[in-house]
Amino acid sequence: MKPLGILMLDTRFPRIEGDIGNPASFGFPVIFRTMQGIGSADAVAAHPDKPRVLAALKSNADALAAEGAVGLSTSCGFLALYQKELEQLSPVPVATSALLLIKTLKGKKVGVITASAENLTPAHFAAVGAPTDTPVAGLPSNGSFAATFLRNGTTLDRDAVENEVIGAGRVLLRDHPDVDAIVLECTNLPPYKKALEGALGVPVFDVLDLLSDFRRGLG
């Protein structure tokens, strides 16, 4: 089976099984390519330097396709912002972000747990055809998740991050009780999906769900 290519941010934090940056997270071959100099702060931003980021996405997409990738994704859900442009520029099909799942969950009131609620804008949702008023809950900006994944730490306290994710899910359902499905924007959050479903009692979807279907559709 030909591989899926993953456009990776330039980071150093741990990537445990379930994280998009760990090849063991997938049931099919993947190849990774780091976009040198494009880090978390470049992606997780309400107003990023779009030309700079898009140029990095384009050049690395070409390289992954040349290596044999039959489709592409990215290591950050915020790169949903570039879905339409990258579709036009990439030589192979593209699924940038778990936010693409929102429009597929027909009949569901979808809420999103994100790495940073303050930076996830209506433009990110519009870029993937999702309602711009989709309910959102973010992880704490001063918590364990942020220390590792937003500030590029070298250690991971898995239990602390799991508690933060569950806490965000509870806030989401408290503030939006009609939500009956959750999408995890962040590609570092799939390891906590089962715990989140167990704590909240609603189905949770992540980038690995997206990419399983995406890869299957590529033949």
Describe this structure in words.
This protein is of the alpha/beta class. The chain has two domains: 4-96 and 208-217, Rossmann fold; 98-206, Rossmann fold, CATH 3.40.50. It contains eight helices and seven strands, in the order ββααβαβαβααβαβα. The chain has helices at 40-43, 50-66, 83-89, 122-126, 144-150, 158-175, 193-200, 207-217, and strands at 4-8, 30-34, 72-74, 110-114, 136-138, 181-184, 204-205. The strands form two sheets. The chain has a four-stranded parallel beta sheet. Strands 2-1-3 form a three-stranded parallel beta sheet, with helices on one face. β4, α4 and β5 (136-138) form a beta-alpha-beta unit. It is globular.
Concise overview:
By secondary structure, the chain is an alpha/beta fold. The protein has 2 domains: 103 residues, 3-Layer(aba) Sandwich (Rossmann fold), CATH 3.40.50; 109 residues, Rossmann fold, CATH 3.40.50.
User: Given the helix and strand composition, which structural class is it?
Assistant: alpha/beta
Return residue spans where pLDDT drops below 50 for at least 5 consecutive residues.
none
* Helix-residue proportion: 25-40%
Strand order of the largest sheet: 5-4-6-7
> What integer value in Å does the Rg equal?
16 Å
CATH domain class name of the largest domain: Alpha Beta
The CATH topology assignment of the largest domain is: Rossmann fold
**Secondary-structure arrangement, i.e. CATH architecture of the largest domain:** 3-Layer(aba) Sandwich
What's the domain count?
Answer: 2
| Order of secondary-structure elements | EEHHEHEHEHHEHEH
Overall 3D shape: globular
Strand proportion, as a percent range, falls in: 5-15%
Oligomer: single chain
Given the structure, what is the number of helices?
8
Q: Give a short account of the largest sheet.
A: 4 strands, parallel
DSSP, total strands = 7
Give average pLDDT, whole number.
98
Distance between the termini: 9 Å
